[in-house]
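Structure ticket #2291
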Amino acid sequence: MYEKYLLQLEEAGKIRNLKERSINCYKNYVSYFLNYMEKHPEELTCQDVRDFLLAKKDDGLKATTLNLYNSAIRFFYQNVLHVLWDDITVPRMIIERKRSIGGTLVDLPIFLDN
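Resolution: structure written out below.
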């Protein structure tokens, strides 16, 4: 049903010199999104993407995975559908980082002396 759009996505990736693996990942993520939404691609909005990502977050997907979906769908919107992307409506997820060292500010002089 969406083959025409996925071929356009592949072509857009090739003309921008994306790696084959990246193109295939983008196609998989976009295909999943299109099948989930069950709408004609020309009718999709940024709000649809936001709703999709929130649903996937509720399903337990991590921020890194959601950002992969975001990147793929954004590429699709901009380079295949030629739709303006709204970073306010569809922001990237903040990825929480674990601290690499333990201790407190009191311990800082000890780390700096070593």
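Closing remark: The two ends are 62 Å apart (CA to CA).
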